[in-house]
Fold each of these.
Amino acid sequence: MSWVEAGRRLSSSGMVIVPVGSTEQHGLHLGLGTDWIIAWELAKRVGEVKGIPVLPVLPYGVAMHHMDFPGTITLSFNTFKSVIMDVLESLHKHGVSKVLFINGHGGNLNALLEACREARAKFNMICVVCQWWDVLAGMGLNVEGQPAQTHAGYAETALMLAFKPESVHLENAILSSTKQVHDEIKLESLSSARFMGGLVRLALNTSDVSDTGSMTEALPSVIPDVRDFSKVNVDLGKRLMDLLVDWLCKFIEAFKTFDIQKTKVSEDKAFKALRGV
Ligand SMILES: [Zn+2]
């Protein structure tokens, strides 16, 4: 669209969809573009149905942990956050006050949220990050018995069969169970481990926990190697896509009326709250 059209549409909707992804390895059977392609395809469909402007997808994210696998491109945390902040500041200047990020890569989450918080403080914007696997998990949905968030698992594979089937090589599909290196400190994922049931957080590389690049994000006793992808097909991908697009469209309707008045903090109001007045 031209700047004239953009000017009209940005100020009339006050809202924008920003798809963000990553260029990173996705196991033996999916392409490097998986995360940005899914975010982009969902965003385009939702924007079209709801008439909300969609920014071009950001195809790079924070993917340091995947760098042992060729083809992965990463931005540093600070670069990624700065890019997002600059995008938000630009949108703010054009009258946008609400932003829906459709995020295709979990590694982006912390930087996205930091930028959202800064935009709230500096520009009074309300920014929301939606990760499609969180939506499915929040609905209590698993995907043919598997959690939605597994890296190069059933859900991502099905969505890519719906969006870009030529990039999927099902004959190489495997979801590798989390590699273990210690008898007592049991790795759940590259970022969490259990010791006597208690949780510790780590920041390992993907290659520390997986030889193929796919990741279950679970103890091997919970999700062992998955080699049977026979139930993963285009129809499943389209079903997931329809569910997600429908949910996102409904969310946008609610988000339109999600307004938080910026009021001044005061002693008077605080003590009234204490007294229940
Ligand atoms: Zn992914």
Amino acid sequence: MKKFKPINIMDNKGFWPEKASLLDAIKDILATGHCESRFPVKDFGRFRSPQWRDEENVLVPWQSVDWYIYDSLDEDRMQVNGASLLRNLANEPWRDERLLGDHYDLFIIEEDLFLPDKEGKGPGYCVGVCRPSFAAVVSSHRIEHIWGMPYSVTKTEIMRQICFMLGVPSHLRDDVSKGPDATAFCHNTCILREARDAPEHWEKLTEDRLKEGALCNSCMDDLRKFFSGRSHKDN
Ligand SMILES: [Zn+2]
């Protein structure tokens, strides 16, 4: 599978101050990973194609950020179903080589997000979700609107989801445990730890990031391997 493919960014707020934390998060990841070449990052903003609504004013599939949200919205919960949104992003027609071709999608949304949970034990919401090698979604709803936390926390979560999307940390390490949907969580003092209890865990991750740096040595190593094109197995 191709690893060096563009990161396409989308958001559904148009111009907004949180955009700075998003761009900042990407810059930090590239610097931490010692990415020397120009990694392609394309900003689609609040994407709406010229044909995003039909004559009846109905949203046309795949043609706008509005449709992606609408199609995955659980109207009873008034939350966006993260699994469905990731599935749409991973299977979108834009991935066809004659259109955009293969890429990563990083989508920042304002709506509340959840992952369906058969046992009903989950917290009933999530802040970010990811499908490694394809896409990540971060919701600003809890962080900013419910918990009233600063942008540095949004940045922490965006950095986490970018790493998970790029396959960091590596599953092959002993100091990681399995997360949902093929992601892995690091066990060290590192933003790639599991975060569950809100808002305390995100506060702590951000505090550690600012004090000790974002990634532990092993995760930093994994990220640098990613950008140098080597795999964990090459060791
Ligand atoms: Zn780590």
